[in-house]
## 1
Amino acid sequence: MMHRLLFLSAFVFLLTNTLYAQVFTSSNLPIVIITTDNAAPIPDEPGVLGGMKILYRGPGLRNYVTDQDSALFLNYNGRVDIEIRGSYSQVLPKKAYGFSTVMADNTTNNNVSLLGMPSENDWILNGLSSDPSLIRDYISYNLSRKLGVYATRTAYCEVVINGAYNGLYILQEKIKADNDRVDVIKITTANNSAPEITGGYITKADKTTGGDPVAWYMSTFYGNNDIMFIHDLPKPSEVTSSQHLYIKGVFEYLKNAAIANNTSPLNGYQSVIDIPSFIDFMLINELASNADAYTFSTYFHKDRNAKLRAGPIWDLNLTYGNDLFELGFDRSKTDVWQFSDGSNEGARFFRDLFNSAQYKCYFSKRWHQHNQPGGPLNLSTILDLIDSTVVLINEARIREDALWGTVGNHAYHISNIKTFVYTRINWINNHIGPYTNCANVVTPPLVITKIMYNPATSTSFPNSNDQEFIEITNAGNSPVDLTGIYFAGTGFVYQFPFGSTIWPNTFIRLASNPMTYQSKFGVAPFGQFTRNLSNSNYELLLADAFGNVIDHVHYYDDAPWPDADGNGKYLQLANVALDNALAANWIALDETVLGLETIGSNDRLFLSPNPVVQSLHINTHTPIEQIQILDLQGRIVLSMPVGAINTDIDLSRLSSGLYLVRAITHSETLLGRIIKE
């Protein structure tokens, strides 16, 4: 009852502010014009149908309400299904909205790009509630993306509803599973056994005001069993009992491993969670001192066969010193960790992770990387973002305050945020602890050396995705234990099994479909990755269990990258010693060359030493008629007759690199692979 009275008090308080009608004709921001059918009021749910136009002439250009009559300036002109959204914000006079873009039939989803954001059909108009600065959500989402993790894309706009000016909003993406949003596979009710049951999931700790039931509760550090976890994907109405038990089990596993400070390579907490995603999620929430962090609007996601990841961040209006002061709250402080402030601490695994010496070391290391000059969490970087945002909305915030009376002295609010950020950064620097023990982690010499991302199709192999593969080479002289090593991120997923090994100067391949790979190339791949490589561009990040980067390649299907896009070619690193982050060090080779290669030495063809500096010894079980040495473009660079089961061949004149050895006998052709140093 008390909570309801507080809400009602806030509602009455804000209604007492005089609302001014005003003439609105143009803006430096995009203009969104919504006209509901028959001018119907927009309810909570279900939504109402209407038309929407987004007027946008382009960056730096002014937009006019009269632009709605010109197709040239319409970023969107179509149907929408729109409703009020939010929890506490619903009691405020200014509403936030969620809407779906739909086709003319008013039912079919219409996936469109709005203001340059990737195509989708579910969107949000953020009303900037409870934030007189109007920038807290915007700068938080942008800072998160600067860390290299997904956060909802944003665009300020001014909104007109049924002919009346409605103020300043942020048009932003709704959190949902999508290749360009939360990139996890969409699990279905049929996915109830491994590996399908392992993902994808989107789960959140949150209020139940949206009507979704609590899936399970988790305890805080103090044992209070009051953190509510809710299924988001699959929907609560669609989740099966097996799926519910599986994803709940992942969180319970994390809880128990974090309590025990278990960092075992076999079953430690790092085996089940993506450490960098948890750290980045906590860093943004702690920098902002988010009063709701960890308890409300706290998202997690897990792709199929992948680790659990924290994020995306969401709803950061109660940050940088702001809170629901009208309800008596004042929790966003510069001198506390929000995961242990005695208030909204969230599930206890956040505090237990921070209390783990190994996790805390990487937490500190990541903070100092981001906080260095030029880094995304450096004071100057943040202040520049604040200043540019203030300039962007300066005109609209005057109209916003004239209409709703909720801004007041904007310069004062911005000054307070800047002071808060300065003080907060200093406090974190003094309380985060050292990272000496994880400053210079030695990672194994693993190199991504081949990428087949868009194979050509044929009668024998009609499915392009089934033919994808990547190759990883151990460029060192010692075996590498692959335990815990994985490809970070979502979309392309693989984690090496416990105890697996790659031998020195050899390579292994991972394929999207092992049966197809073996049928095509005659050998079985080392393992199978989940989902597929992008046909346009993708970031492959190979990391150890704690997220230390081992190798990093971001390939593209256009120049300066070689053309290996659907033409029967794959990307090949020209030399294992070269920097594979540079497009100039890759070549495109025909996949027929790949058919000449084997993994390691053929059991009937012995090549020694390998790598070779000068003389290569070749031995077979049957007499060799001819030896051929081929480069990786399939060209014969050396050929000689033999007439014996073994021979030595001088390779001193060959350049360093990878070569194929073809030993032709009277009954067969044996193939091997060598590295020339």
## 2
Amino acid sequence: MIEYYIFKHIMKNIIIGFLNFIIDIANKIVKRLTKEVVTNKITMDKIQYHNKGRYLIYYFNNTDLESSSEQVLKYIFTLLMSDDRFKNFGENKTIITTAYIDGDDFAYHPNVLITNKTTFEEYYNYVERFITENYEDGYPCNVIPRFRVRVWNMDHLANKTIKINATPITKNRRGNFISRGFHSCGFQTVTMSSTSLLKSGFHNSSIGLSQYNDLIGPLKPNFSDEVNKLATMDIETMSLPNFPFQVPVAITTAYQGGSKIFLIDNTTLHSDNIATINKSINDMWTEYVNFMLTKPGLFEYIFVHNLGSFDGLFLYKGLLNCLDPSMISCIIDDHNKFITITYTNGDVKLVWKDSYRIFPVSLDNLCKVFNVSGKISEYNPEFNQLSLFDNQDLFNQFKDYSLQDSLSLYSALVEAQNLYMKEYQIDITTIFSTSTLSLKIFRSSFLKVNIPILKGMEDSFIRKGYYGGATDYYKAKVTKAKYIDVNSLYPFAMCKPMPLDIKQFHHDLSNVKLDDFFGFALVEIDCPKDIRPVLPYRVNGKTIFPTGRWISTYYSEELKAVQELGYKITLIKGYEYTKTYLFNEYVDHFYDIKKNSTGSQRFIAKMQLNQLYGYFGRKQELLRTVNVKTSDISKYLASQLIKTIIDINDEYSTLLIHVNVETNTLFRLNSLLETNINCFETPVKSNVAIAAAVTAYARIHMIPYKLDPGCVYTDTDSTFTTSDISQFDIGNELVP
């Protein structure tokens, strides 16, 4: 009997072992097949290790033009989880994903803590809203061609500084994963046990900490004849055989009464030693900064016509490399574009601003608009060759060419400054962009009432009903089509009744008639399948015009317009508003100038007409910039919501940290965490209800063009049609 049981036990183990062997082979085959499918869509380009920051960098190329953002991210997640180096990099890891489009990088999702056991569903449930918001905010294209994923090992903080607790992730009634941990997934949550982690950072407010006001009210015009002194700056770069990036070789500045050029020590550019070249670059920046600081009162606002990206990054890195980083701050938008860079040391202050944000045209066109001398010569490709410095005539041409950009920009901006002060009592050194300039003119000269700034919950509800224009084609080929362009569509829409004050929030609108309601409502839509759909709907960050049934938020006036077409609408809940005419005087003023003027006057009028409404649609999201040692990044990742990271040099990086405007605090995991960052109420002067109303009125006006039987194509404000255009109002007046 004993032998029988021994034999039975042995056979049982053999069978179990054989089955496990078969299962293991099957799993490997499935894994290999899955990886082959994934790598056909997404390829892992390369893996790097950043020594100073102690993090891994993965690069992925995306060849999948059809899959959703969720599917593409699943490919990336699968490749990461199947990579041995990733799995062995630690049990607790934080990752940040960045999108690359046309040479620029965009935030894709912020830091999220995962483990080797985290499922894709758990991971995607957390990052989905950030990805969707980024797509809605306007990527240049729907397909992201390249991704970068940075990975930090968080195990070294788990021992003493971070306590990692099990936090079950469950499903709610809709089947969505929910977790009590704020920025964690995979059954992990992070809480800080020390308040001393963040002492080493240099913290800079992205917006001035002025007293917050929950109203956008009229401003008193500035009738002073004095304007702030301005200067301009430009950077020229060169490609070097042994250097991985473009190298700044000349800095120019123009100011009242003069101009100056600062040149790199070109004898070092032949060196194979990157450190030697970097030292020459830093020496040039030091010379430039010292000159600016030795002219007190002459410089305060320095404009650069490409600060947003190319020149701004060189300037920012240059200042951080040659000055105390605690004296350098910046404002960066949600696409990593510089808005301002500021140096502050006691009473001494220098502010660099982007003139392109105010006047979004090329430098040549800007000079033509304000009737000043532009470039005196064209760019010579030989300026990008090291042989430039061996040819004295060519070198002199290069210096003249470099200076002319700063000089011509200075001349144009001085003319613009004088014109805006004379006509509207506004100094352009006090604003940041075309939209802020438009808003200041509107508030100083035309606004008669106070416009409320929406609270967080109000903004969140109404923003779901904020849609832009649309481009649709209905036939791929047509002959003898007529083109119709709607005259100043958005200014025309701005002259319609605008939502002003919230009368009340209706939790139940089932007994309210749509014709009696003015505001924004969550509704159930039923669109017949036999009509050409004109009501937008957002799915996975993309706007479509569907038929069928769905639930979403819309402006009441657009609902009334589509109801006449056969849409069935059931009101659920929403905000009821008072109505007023806000922009009529402003629009009439600038439209009259646009119609009857030329040159700078017409340029200004057209720009101011088109830029104002968009300011009210600004997201109530603030970013705080923090300059930190690269080796300390992981400490911030443990407690702050980091939108993205800008590499300055091996020693320092700049973090873009989300500020929660609804609670007036930085996003954090533990409310007891204290830092030396001053939290503040939101100064974002926006009211998305106004912007949403303007775009809705514009879409309403385009409905007849979209429903025209001869229509073959429409975009935001124009159409191609084969129909007789006499049925439409033709003319050059604003209001038909």
## 3
Amino acid sequence: MYGDHAPSPSKSETTVEIVAVISDFQPRLMSYVKTFNGRIAVVLAVDQWVFERDIDRGFLGEALVGGLIFPNMALVNAEYFHLQEVKLKRRLAREMLESLVLNYPEFSYGFFIQPEYFMYEAMNERAQLFPPKMRDLLVLMHSNTRDQFLQASLRGYVEALRQLESENVITFSDGYVRLCHRFVDKAAKQRLLFTNLFKSGQRRLFMSLLGALLRFSNLMPRNIEFLRSLQKGFMSSKTTERIVTPENYLLIPTASGLVPFTSRLDIQQFARKVLAAGNDVDVKTVRMGGILNDVYLVKFLFVGTEKTVVAKRFRDWSNFKWFPLTLWSVGTRRFSVSGRSRLEKECAMSQLLYSEGFCVPKLLHVSPSERLIFKEYIDGEGLDRIVRKIGSSKSADDVTKGLELVAKVGETLARVHALGVALGDTKPENVVVTSHGKVCLLDFEQASRRGDKVWDVAEFLYYGGHYIPPFADVTRAESIAKAFIRGYISAGGNVGVVKKAANPKYTKVFSIFIFPHHMLAISNVCRRADKGVI
């Protein structure tokens, strides 16, 4: 028996929906409308084989079994229905995890998921696909039996998740669900497959709606008021505001703790809530450039000391910015242009590199809905200034020290590549050298797993080459390239990656930034990287 009435079957004002699963039932599916003690009951009789196919694969768009997601009571054979409910929730949980991978390919490696996410996501999705279910969900959320049902439903999901854990789909960590990396990798590669499944899901939806509407239409001559209440479910625009948001149970790790995916803190709220700056503290925001994004320094006093944090808001580039470079790099490199995608890469890669011991700014907080992140401010000298000195300085000591730092950058990039990560934007200004000589990486909004490592090498060398004065000796450009490549290969970098950076596929992209004679000198160094001349 389905519905919010299930824990209290004595309510006379509710309509009862009963599914009877019958072995070898002919015909396969029939519906009846009965009245018991003044209560209307819709009885759906279904063959066991059909019912179980709907459990296993959504044979009828889950029109028969969707009620197991909502309040239900087994009248006969409770053990059988519990088994089927767990099987259904296991399949739905796996599909939800696959959707998370497709929607958030980088975040999904680091998500901390509370089991409640699966319960609310399943209920909300069905309520949105068929609005009368929204009314049932609202009644449930405000009923006296709410906690009783939610706990019972959650136990089914936990049992299903334990089965997925045994299949190496997820792991449990302190009560949170974490996706296994192999599962994420596999799901990401099946992107087109799941896109096609989504289209077939639309057809299944029509079948679900048809089945539901046929059952409800049987009530028309008996209960007009009931149908009017269903219509209100379609028409109400405020119902979703009263439903629990599943994304509250998706959490992103930061240096200040786990942050709900639905966080909406702005700059002032972040400073006062997360950084514990009181209401009487003056919080200053100073714009520090950022052509493609809005980047600010957030300054405030904390226990008598001025603290500085970087706030970065990600804008979409669709009608804007890097269009000339994108056009020029067709066939060589694809850039992430949506603000959401770039924010996701920035957060995920920051956390990954930080956890692997790299010097990167700590991720302090993230507000995906505001497309805003807050990161630690790292004070130091930009590598672009160091490269300029190498290209123009008359001091041999300055040049030697600068080349040593460039070699360190090469070593750092090789270690990043060893993780299977490409940074995607390796311009020298995205590297800072601290006063202690530590190389720190800054920008990861184009980074990705399994990205183009050759692009990383090519961009650093060729884009960095445009800082060299036009009339400087080409040996300066060669010395920078040799120092970087020497560091890269010594740390385990692939010499084949370096050689490929000399291909016209990459040199053509940066020809608009660097003088031809310097580009030729750098590309020749890359081409001879395996000849022992570095």
## 4
Amino acid sequence: MKVLVVEDDLWMRSLLAEVVFLRGHEVTAVREAETAWERWQQEHFPMVLLDWHLPGMDGLELTRRIRATEGGDATVILLITGRGERNDLVDVLDAGANDYIAKPFDVDALDTRLAIAERAVELIAQRKLAEDALAHQALHDALTGLPNRVLLHDRLAQAILTAQRANGSLALLMMDLDRFKEVNDTFGHHWGDELLRQVAARLQGTLRATDTVARLGGDEYAVVVPSAGDAAEASRAARKLQQALEIPFIVEGQALDARASVGIALCPEHGEDPDTLLRHADVAMYVAKRAGGGFSVYTSEQDYHSPGRLSLVGELRRAIEDDELVLYYQPKVNVRDGSLVGVEALVRWDHPLHGLMLPDDFVPLAEQSGLIEPLSRWVLNTALRQLRDWSDQGLQVPVAVNLSMRNLHDPQLPDSIAEMLELCNVDPTLLRVEITESVLMTDPVRAMEVLSRLRSLGVQIAIDDFGTGHSSLAYLKRLLVDELKVDKSFIKDIAQDEHDAAIVRSAIQLGHNLGLTVLAEGVEDGPTLTVLSHLQCDQAQGYFLSRPLTADALPRWWRDWRDHPGALAESA
């Protein structure tokens, strides 16, 4: 232990230094309090032997200075005094000294006091270790050892201040693991915890020393990148993190995938305080997850918490309650003979100020605000009532309705649909629900439970946007899916791009091998329809065949199409 001896008398200073040295400690001995103060500030000695009466600053003042400094409470101070009055000793203790050594003293008495002081130093050190451990626990995640939300908030605030002083910028990345719940449900929480630890270690190994990665809870992480100057740099950082997770993790000999969706918020562009940046990064992450993975940079259009979006939420709630929305129906035709095989119900909002709003303008808002369930029920109920009306007119046409991830988390959904089917007196086989690959694989266990119950009612099931997500063939088989809808991004160029044509051919063959109907989305021209016919695709949907129609316009379109199937004739 390093001990500081402060005594102006040479003989006394030498005696104190010798006794301390003989007890095995390293000694620094000085004559004046000013010198001692400078040395203590440099080294923070754990023990100080200090004479009361010194030239210049006295021992009481030096004691007060040490105690007033951060870390000063960890130093044991023995004040040396020849004054034995009660008030003098009270002054010693009031100044902050732990104990005193009275002059004149013998070596044995000094040795005893030193032993007591050493024990005090030891106890203080133990207390500091315990305090440091508690402080670490308060600021770090117990499972991974990463900074927790509290420490992230503090470091983010410091990074913002640093960026502002330098007139610079930074990025906050919010990351959520895809399909993590599936690991817990399949293998148990022990495996899930080990996967979270390995993800944390890999993220730390990917980042630079200046970056901060924290675990916010569950399978959610956040990363502060102080050097990211713009969206392009932040996007590169997001891709780097995602690439680091592409190599499977090994848990008890089993290879596990841990892909992630990442949301990006920039300072000062998207906020200049920690809470705003955290919220905006979370909004962007949700957008990325809804899109089926990848990353997304925050935009105000995504954020329903903005004043304009909050106002729109209230208006949407009233529009649902007052039956102010409208459904359009886009036909699906058989590629071989042109027959009408179904329609897809597409919701529109005829807003008094914004005009006719498409689903992309308000469905994400409904999902974020909790309105997606009443919106989906409105669509289902309206579509089934329309189906009943068409049947009464002699037009028996299946109707497809899109479901979101939140719909599949609603265990009451199958019972609600069964009740609607009964009230509308509709054959369940005429209703088809469409879900995207990304929605299916976000929580496949829960999705399978809800969809299996719908299947038992006789409701048909289609996988929408096939090819853009990461679906499992095992789940497709176990779900008894009826239809695959190949995403329009693969369809639009198949007449010119051999690679896209090869992908579509493989998707069609896969669907047929699984006993499924295959539908091509986004058919925009005759040559595309011709290629689909040669590839033996079953059904098609797109503007070349028909744009979405109102309920009243659909029967008229069907009569004209049936009598003059122009699209198929042109493509023949």
